[in-house]
Amino acid sequence: MRRSNNHRRTSLALALGAVLALVPMTALAGDSRADADVEDARETLAEFKANDAELQAHLDEAVAYVVFQEVGKGGFVFAGGQGEGILFENNIPRGRVSLRLLSVGAQVGGQRFSELIIIKDASALKNFKRGRAELQAGVSAVGAGKSASRQLQYQDGIAVMTRVHSGVMAEASVGRQKFTFQRFEKETQPGT
Predict the structure, then answer these.
(1) How many other CB atoms sit within 10 Å of the CB of residue 27?
(2) 169 near 73, Cβ under 8 Å?
(3) Any residues with CB less than 8 A from the CB of 183 and at least 6 apart, and which?
(4) Cα separation of 162 and 143, whole Å?
(5) Is residue 25 part of a domain?
């Protein structure tokens, strides 16, 4: 009986040790993914800036911005889309943002595009982080290109630029973009 209890304790200790050994590897895998996503976001931002020298002035005046490397959208009458992005405050990556969009109306097709959201003031940023920011899909977005930032229009402290990668979407629809923010853990904040 005593030997059996020792065997169980040893087995339990070995199993616990194996689980604890895997935890740092899992955390590192999460960190490397976050680092890769931040790097992708920075590359996407550089692509936006490459064709629009005036965009930097908007970013310098903003309290934050969100870069979505790729948003997918498609549908027929009803359309939906989604994307994952990185929120930067003072050029420091602070967390992930999920974008969900839904629209209804005369529409058909599909698209892949990058999106840059510029957040002008602290109040707009606070609302954005709390999930209170909701944009009309396609209404306030400015297509990226040479000096496109001159046409930026802020709605509740937020402006949107897009760069289409592929696809065609013919639409006369009404829709919304909804955002969810998840802060990076302070200890594992990538890119800092």
Answers:
(1) 13
(2) yes
(3) 94, 95, 129
(4) 5
(5) no
DSSP-assigned states of every residue in 143-191: E-STTGGGG---BTTEEEEEEEEEEEEEEEEEEEEEEEEEEPPGGG-TT
Q: Which domain holds residue 116?
A: 47-187
d(CA 114, CA 160): 10
Q: Which residues have C-beta within 8 Å of that of residue 77, sequence separation ≥ 6? A: 104, 105, 106, 107, 108
Q: Does residue 151 belong to any structural domain of this protein?
A: yes
Residue 138 lies in a domain: yes
Buried/exposed code over 92-124 (b: 16+ C-beta within 10 A; e: otherwise)? ebbbbbebebbbeeebeeebebbbbbbbbeeeb
The model's pLDDT over 70-109, given as tens digits with 9 standing for 90+, comes to 988 888 878 888 999 999 999 999 999 999 988 887 777 8
Type of residue found at 156: D
141 falls within a domain? yes
**pLDDT score for 2:** 53
Kindly report the pTM of this predicted structure: 0.74
Domain count, the chain: 1
> How far apart (Å, rounded) are the C-alpha atoms in residues 106 and 178?
21
Spatial separation of the C-alpha atoms in residues 188 and 192, rounded to whole Å: 9
Q: How far apart are CA 157 and CA 140, in angstroms?
A: 12
Report the distance separating Cα 67 and Cα 55, nearest Å: 14
Which burial class, exposed, middle or buried, applies to 40 when counting CB atoms under 10 A from its CB (0-12, 13-18, 19+)? Answer: middle
